[in-house]
Amino acid sequence: MRCDSHVHIVGPHDRYPQLAERTYLADIATLKQLENVSASRAIRRFVIVQPSFYGADNSLLLEGLDALAGRGRAVAVVNPETTSARTLSAMAGQGVCGLRLNLYSPLRDKAPLAARFEAVARLAHELSWHIEVVAALKVLTENVALLASSRVPVVIDHYGLYSGFRPEQSEGSTILKLLAMPHVWIKLSAPYRVSANPLETKPDPAWLAALVAAAPERCVWGSDWPHTPPHEEQMGSAVLGAYRSLRYETLVDDFMAAVGSAELAERILSDNPARLYGFE
Hints:
This protein is an alpha/beta fold. 36% of the residues lie in helices and 17% in strands. The chain has helices at residues 31-38, 59-68, 85-94, 113-127, 137-142, 144-148, 170-179, 205-214, 248-259, 262-277, and strands at residues 2-7, 25-26, 43-49, 72-76, 96-102, 130-134, 154-156, 184-189, 219-222, 240-241. Strand 4 (72-76), helix 3 (85-94) and strand 5 (96-102) form a beta-alpha-beta unit. It is globular, with a radius of gyration of 17 Å.
């Protein structure tokens, strides 16, 4: 069964308040809307990722898992100092299987990755979860030793956010060597986040080829639905941010065409996420 390994859902503002320090007001994006746009491409499994504007309030994420009834997994955000073992256990029972560290969005934690990684890794290790890291390529390469020595699986977001670098450069070579390690995975998601075109739907051929060659069994695909606005278009906490005007079907079709091999594309869409996220 095909899986979209990177989606967000957003509820009504009065029921699911967004952080006061947010950089824009996210519009409603429901699970039902997601299932409607993905149905034509036979995608029925989803990994819900906690968006930055909800902080560590995972309420809507957990409701989404319940609604998916086994077809969903999630990557949550928690405070490792205050979240109880009982809460974490309950989250695991609902389908949470990873913890997210955000060093990319305007609401990111300003602390260095190394300062936050160990506390989260301890929780992830106890729960047999993974750590998902969203950070620019330069940050990833600066912390390559930390990621390489992780006791838990590491999942890198959005093609490694390589903007400005090529795979043959030293930074590219470093991330490809890291990706060759058996505990490191990567999400082939949101090509527009690594392109000068904010509506880009086609993966960069050279980067796609290099990443898939480095880890064909540890690449997963994600849409990044509902396609949050670029950082420079986030105009303040009271301003409703317009999602990028993209067709879900185009993202899927352009990805599969770029991969070239139907068999490999299906592995990335189906087999690999089934192993990473523990789908039956």
